[in-house]
Each structure stands twice: as C-alpha cells, then as structure tokens.
Amino acid sequence: MNINKFIAIAFMLAIGACGNKKESETTLSTTEIVNGITTSTFKVWGNCGMCKETIEGSVEVEGVSEADWNTETKMIKVSYDTIKISLDQIQKNIAAVGYDNEKYKGDVGAYNNLPECCQYIRRK
User: Cα(91)–Cα(43) distance, rounded to whole angstroms?
Assistant: First the structure.
C-alpha cells in the first residue's frame, strides 16, 4: 500500500470516529417521576466519548443522582431531585460547558474551547 492511500484511509477513519456528523433534529423528550425521583430525557448535541464525559460531568451536582448521555442517539437521561435542582438548571449547566440542548444554546466561548472532535454541528 502506498503512503498516500494509507494517509487517506487513516484520515477517513479519524473523521468517522469523532467527526462532525449530521445530527437529527428529532427529539423525544420525556419526564417521569418514580418514588420521588424525577427522570428526564432530552437531546444534547455532541459527537464522541470526550463529549460524553464533559456533558455528564456538567451535571455532577447536588440533586442529580444519575446522568447518561448516549453518543449514538444524542439523548441524555438524567435522574434528579426537583427540590434540589430543576430541569431548567440542568439544561443551563450543560449549555454552560458548550453543548446545545433542546432549551439552551451552548455557550459560544465554551464551544470554541472544546477539542476539535467535540465541535459538533451547532443547532439552529
């Protein structure tokens, strides 16, 4: 295999692993309450495992008991105590670290400081 072909294949693999992918605008937001714990699911734009760490880390705050962002569906499932934190505040926390969600556009400065592979296609 010649070097140009090798470089082209490596480049395509790198882009596919963490590149800007076309994101669906479809969302399936839900909220349910079971045994006093509220669980909400909503869309958060992002790309990769590093995005997952940042998004989930942004909601590691008092009142949030669990958060799981899915890199494929771009949906986060958050379980929280509404006496300690609101869904609105959770969405603001995510936007503050640069990630658009259904309610808030990510902070521009934070977005610009994300690693290149985490700079997803911005929502409208």
Answer: 10
Residue 97: both structure tokens together: 């670290």
Prediction pTM value: 0.78
CA distance 39 to 89: 14
Task: Show the domain range for 48.
Answer: 3-118
Report the DSSP beta bridge partners of residue 67: 78
Number of domains in the chain: 1
Tally of CA atoms within 13 A in the half-sphere of 103 that contains its CB = 13
CATH number, domain at 51? 3.30.70.100
3-state SS of 39-80? EEEEEECCCCHHHHHHHHHCCCCCCEEEEEECCCCCEEEEEE
- Whether residue 124 lies inside any domain: the answer is no
Q: What is the pLDDT of residues 28-87, one digit of tens each?
A: 789 999 988 999 999 999 999 999 999 999 999 999 999 999 999 999 999 999 999 999
User: Is 97 within a domain?
Assistant: yes
Strands 37-43 and 75-80, by their bridges, are antiparallel
